[in-house]
Write a structure and sequence with these properties.
This protein has a domain at 59-191: 3-Layer(aba) Sandwich (Rossmann fold). It contains six helices and nine strands. The protein has helices at 17-20, 23-26, 46-49, 52-65, 80-91, 147-158; strands at residues 30-33, 41-44, 73-77, 95-101, 109-116, 119-126, 135-143, 162-171, 186-191. Helix 4 packs across helix 5 (80-91). The radius of gyration is 16 Å and the shape is globular.
């Protein structure tokens, strides 16, 4: 089933250079140099979110990357991961689970500390958000150093969930975050 609006590109195909290199996505991402600190290039997805067809296509492409995979819950990390994970969960007929920064969830949580490309932080998830044996898809906007994604994977596994994949809109290849994700299936729409 096609989820693209009328007039969008044809089925993704490795023989279609426009789709295989994800230039459409790169054209909708704004690079902001030296933010939040010198030497870091922030990938701003707000232009993509403001483009209805582009946002629809990004969500659809993430869903299609995991077509045929049984998913019980889709996890999205605070904050931009929420924006993508919730509609992915909706299209996959799965539940959505927010993974939040420390101190934001109102009930019993488990916590995991992780390293960012420019510091450290902590993530939390409700203790009852995942049940043993549930199949979990993790979705976020950017895979950079892999700290956030690997911390989320540890939270899932601590609660007995099975990670069936991790999907990202953007991957910063030079930072090798994929290496922190072990043997898990990783799909990225565009690699910088």
């Amino acid at each position: 089933m096609r989820l693209y609006p009328a007039g969008m590109a044809a089925e993704p195909s490795s023989t279609n250079p426009v789709l295989s290199d994800a230039q459409w996505l790169r054209d909708l991402i704004r690079d902001i140099p030296d933010y939040p600190q010198a030497g870091v290039t922030f990938r701003d997805i707000t232009p993509l979110l403001g483009d209805a067809a582009g946002f629809h296509r990004a969500v659809t492409d993430l869903v299609e990357r995991f077509a045929g995979v049984e998913v019980d819950r889709v996890l999205g990390m605070e904050a931009r991961g929420f924006i993508l994970a919730a509609p992915v969960a909706f299209h996959m007929n799965a539940a959505f689970v927010p993974v939040r920064k420390a101190g934001k969830l109102p009930w019993q949580v488990i916590r995991e500390e992780y390293v960012l490309e420019y510091g450290t932080d902590k993530l939390e998830i409700h203790r009852d958000a995942i049940h043993p044996g549930e199949r979990i898809l993790v979705i976020d906007d950017v895979l950079a150093t892999g700290g956030t994604a690997s911390a989320t994977a540890r939270l899932v596994e601590a609660l007995g969930g099975e990670i069936v994949g991790l999907g990202f809109m953007i991957e910063i290849g030079d930072l090798a975050g994929r290496n922190k994700l072990g043997d898990h299936r990783v799909e990225s729409l565009a690699v910088y």
